[in-house]
Every structure is written in C-alpha cells, then in structure tokens.
Amino acid sequence: MEKGNKWTVADLAQAAKAIQEGELVAFPTETVYGLGADATNDTAVKQVYAAKGRPSDNPLIVHIASQDDLAPFVAEISVSAKQLMDHFWPGPLTLIFDIQEGSLPSSTTGGLTTCAFRMPDNKVTLGLIETSGKVLVGPSANTSGKPSPTTAEHVLHDLEDNIAGVIDDGQTTVGLESTVLDMTVNPPMILRPGAITPDDLMTVIPEVVMDDHLVSESSQPKAPGMKYRHYAPEVPVYMIDYAVQNWQSAIEWATSEGKKIGLLCSESIAKPYLEEVDDVYYLSKESDVKSSMHQLFSGLRYFDNQNESIDIVFVETFADEGIGMAYMNRVRKSASQRYYR
Ligand code: TXA
Ligand code: MG
C-alpha cells in the first residue's frame, strides 16, 4: 500500500483493511492522535516502535471500543475499575490491569505482566476498532521525544513515510494525553496526570494516590515512558513562574543577550510586549488553563518547525493543581525544568 495517506471519515473501510493487513494507521482521539496497529500482531507492533524511534521497554496503551473487548486479556475486573469505566469511558482515562499470561505479545506489554487499556472518546476511532475487529496499540503518533500530535498535519510531519495513513478528524479537543491510573495497586495510583484529575476520580472511588515522582520529580517514575526526555523543541524553553510574572525582566535580559524571543502564553500576558518580542503563539485569551492545555503541543511544534529563527521561548505556567497538574507536567519537561529567575 502507498504510504502517508490522509484519510477522512469516509475512508474508514480502507483504514480498517490496512490495520487487518498489519499496517500502521494513525487515528484521532480526544487527547492526541495515536499510532495504531493490531495489538495482537507482534510484527505490526514492532513496526510502531521502529516508526517512532521508541525505546522497547516502554509499553503501549491498548485502545478498545467496548468493555467486552477486555475479556480475552483481563481475568479479573475489580468493582472500582468497573465503576471508573462506567463513569469515564469513553474518555481520557487509561487503566492498567494485570493480564492473562500470553494473551498479548511482549512487544505490546514491554515484557510486563500488566497492560494499559483505554476507550477513546472519538466516534471514528471506535468505528475503526469495530470495523477492523482488532484492538489497537496507540502511542502518541509523534517521533519519540517530540510533542504529541494534536492534528493530522503534525502526524504526517513526523511519520509520513512510515504509516499507511492518518484519519483526519481535525484538532483534538483535550490536547494532552490521558490520565494513566494503575489499578494493580491499592489504592490505585496515578502514573501520568491528565484532564481527569484526582478529584474527578475520587467522585467515583474513595482514594487515589500519586506516583511520588509526580510530586517531587526526584524519584524514578513508575510508568516507563515518564522517564524519557519529552516534548522539548530544539530551541531552549524557559518557564515564567505564574506567581512572579517576571515577563518584563525575562524579555529585557534576552534582548540584552541579542536573542530573538518567542512567547508561548495568553493574549493578555503578551499584549504589553508585542513590540519587544519576535513572535508569539497564543495559548489562550486570558490565561485559562483548559485552553492552554488544548494549544500547548501545537505551540511547542510551532517554535520547533514553523519559526526556526527564534533563539529562546518563554512559556506561561499555572498552579500545580487540578488540570494545572497535567499542563505543568508537560511544560516542565518541555523546558527541561528551567524557570527564568
Ligand atoms: O491519550 C493517550 O493516552 C494517547 C492517545 C493516543 O490514546 N496515548 C498515549 O500513549 O499517550 P503513549 O504510549 O505515548 O503513553 C503511554 C504511557 C507511557 O508513559 C507508558 O510508559 C505508560 O503509559 N504505560 C503503558 N503501559 C503501562 C504499564 N503496563 N505500566 C506502567 N505504565 C504504562
Ligand atoms: Mg507519547
């Protein structure tokens, strides 16, 4: 099959056929685009790692279209897990379960005895899973280390030569990857923060805890993928502390160093500095974290690909609470933890 097709919803049958033939198809979800392949086909899954340049010890999420799709893989589903699925699926919540030995290839599980599952909230992709009759691995459809893709164009930029095609369903709505919750421990543990917050989860189950790594960033993360360098554009990114808002002094310093400056922030923050900086990518109108989550990866890609003349980017931060935790987890990585002080 010819590579790098851009498919629409109307081409679902063709995309499903490619999946059945062991090819790679990028699919839309509410979070980010995923790089899909038949999760039970070892050869196809190995191609997913190769296409992304992803380390092979980093396990994949299996995307399903109904809770019944879990049956061949997961022996036991706890009451809490059932309640979470009923409440949040389809949606941006990934659940990790113990799986039946040998029910999935070790390429999919990264050799672990557990596996992550999620039912994405996207009709086309649920249709792709149903039409192909296959459950799909779906790491974010970017080159490893780059910001996750929130449009079909981002996917083709990174992976055009390596995939049969991408199903274009416009820009994703959430913009950051799903919350990953480990159900194999008690109480369940958040390994990656996302749009579904600890408080959201605790409206359904009594207790969740956070991986220590998310609180201190010092200990080793429990999700293998959280330890890798991520989201960082070529250009250095510095965070501006939301509690200090020292944009003025950051811009004066960078100007005195002769740097071309990019801002990644709200319209209201950027407004006084438009004459002094070289480019701005707006994350929101008036600094709301939800819109900023939605635009963040596009903005990081903008300074990586579209405007390569910029020497330094200053990025907006938010309080590390609620959905701000998910935003800040990605922003800290993109800035290699650096604040302008
Ligand atoms: O929103 C999303 O979750 C997107 C869309 C496409 O669904 N997918 C996604 O996949 O972000 P990926 O592969 O980029 O991230 C999966 C994360 C990684 O950090 C991985 O280490 C962790 O989940 N993970 C997967 N299986 C795991 C397991 N069995 N135990 C611990 N962590 C696991
Ligand atoms: Mg990823």
Automatic annotation (TrEMBL):
Enzyme class: transferase
Compartments (UniProt record): Cytoplasm
GO terms under biological process: regulation of translational fidelity; tRNA processing
Main subcellular location of this protein, as a coarse class: cytoplasm
Residues annotated as binding ATP: 54, 58, 63, 114, 118, 140, 148, 192, 231
Reactions catalysed: L-threonine + hydrogencarbonate + ATP = L-threonylcarbamoyladenylate + diphosphate + H2O
EC number: 2.7.7.87
Keyword vocabulary terms for this entry: ATP-binding, Cytoplasm, Nucleotide-binding, Nucleotidyltransferase, Transferase, tRNA processing
Pfam families assigned: Sua5_C (PF03481), Sua5_yciO_yrdC (PF01300)
One GO CC term, this protein: cytoplasm
Keyword Transferase recorded: yes
Gene3D superfamilies, per database record: DHBP synthase, Threonylcarbamoyl-AMP synthase, C-terminal domain
Similarity annotation: Belongs to the SUA5 family.
Protein name: Threonylcarbamoyl-AMP synthase
